[in-house]
From TrEMBL:
Every Phosphoribosyltransferase domain range: 205-287
Pfam families xref list: Pribosyltran
Annotated organism of origin: Solidesulfovibrio magneticus str. Maddingley MBC34
Entry-linked CDD domains: PRTases_typeI
The entry's keywords: Glycosyltransferase, Transferase
Name used for this protein in its record: Putative amidophosphoribosyltransferase
A molecular-function term among this protein's GO annotations: glycosyltransferase activity
Coiled-coil ranges from the UniProt annotation: none
Glycoprotein found in the keyword field: no
SUPFAM superfamilies: PRTase-like
Length: 288
């Protein structure tokens, strides 16, 4: 039985009441510290934030900030929409590994045929490169919420596409729960938010599935996977996750992350969900 650390429910980055609150200058200052100098600095800061909010409110492409045509259905200009087109063919439906020919019918890759995977179905939007990579990094490291919304829209469309297909590696029916890949608390405190949780929250609204933000916990901090060679990534994650059987046993879980590269993180997290008794684990990532 996994002992998960007690955690407070995570804050909602996309809560309109919270994220749109723009405190008046000085509203958060301790009483007695208000001086003319801090007053001018706070007012300048507030006006800057107000300007950025107004600019963001205009219809702009979330990828390049160019103005959008009046009839745009997505917050993307035509050029960026082309560069962010989803991968529709030439990939393994179980793990998203991509071949040369993007037109080929999806088929299981050698690794998935030989070794299998600890998850069942898989959905992704596109390759982790170019503009898609810039969006992922802009959301994760710079907190660009518009880019997060865009990525969540890609995730929802990718999930619907995968769910509409048949065969191995394809989701089978709707999930009971969305579970984000957790960050270790110290890393969460440093970054300020968990990008996977925010994507899962928006995806849950899109596909009507409840979110279980504390069903999976990170038990220890690990060296960032991107800094390790492939063969060390799995051992780096041994014992890194535990899932709460009370939340996942017998349930169909959709594990959500922003990116999957070698798959070591998703694999370890999916194994923890399985150990806790999940009936099924599907995976959705924005980029692969
Ligand atoms: Zn654009
Ligand atoms: Zn595969």
């Amino acid at each position: 039985m996994a002992n998960l650390p007690a955690l407070a429910p995570p804050a909602n980055l996309f809560d309109p009441n919270a994220s749109d609150a723009l405190p008046m200058p000085g509203a958060t200052d301790a009483p007695g510290l208000w001086t003319a100098r801090t007053g001018v600095a706070c007012l300048a800061d507030w006006l800057g934030r107000l300007g950025r909010r107004l600019l963001a409110a205009c219809d702009r492409c979330q990828a390049c900030q160019g103005l959008l045509p009046a009839d745009a259905s997505l917050p993307l200009c035509p050029a960026c929409r082309d560069r962010l087109a989803p991968r529709l063919g030439g990939f393994c439906p179980r793990c998203g590994a991509m071949g040369e020919n993007a037109e080929a019918t999806p088929g299981l890759c050698l690794d998935c045929r030989r070794d299998g995977r600890p998850w069942d179905g898989f959905a992704f939007h596109g390759r982790y490169e170019g503009l898609l990579r810039e969006l992922v990094l802009g959301f994760k490291f710079h907190g660009r919420l518009g880019q997060g919304r865009l990525l969540a829209g890609f995730l929802a469309a990718a999930w619907r596409r995968a769910a509409a297909r048949d065969g191995p590696g394809c989701p089978d029916g709707a999930p009971d729960l969305l579970v984000p890949t957790p960050l270790y608390p110290r890393r969460l405190a440093w970054r300020g938010f968990n990008q996977s949780l925010e994507l899962a929250r928006l995806l849950g609204r899109e596909i009507g599935t409840p979110l279980a933000p504390l069903a999976l916990a990170r038990l220890r901090d690990t060296v960032p996977q991107s800094s390790l060679p492939g063969r060390e990534r799995r051992s780096n994650l041994t014992g890194a996750f535990a899932a709460d059987p009370a939340q996942v046993a017998g349930r169909r879980v959709l594990l959500v992350d922003d990116v999957m590269t070698t798959g070591a993180t998703v694999e370890t997290a999916a194994q923890a969900l399985r150990r806790a008794g999940a009936a099924r684990v599907d995976v959705a990532v924005a980029a692969r």
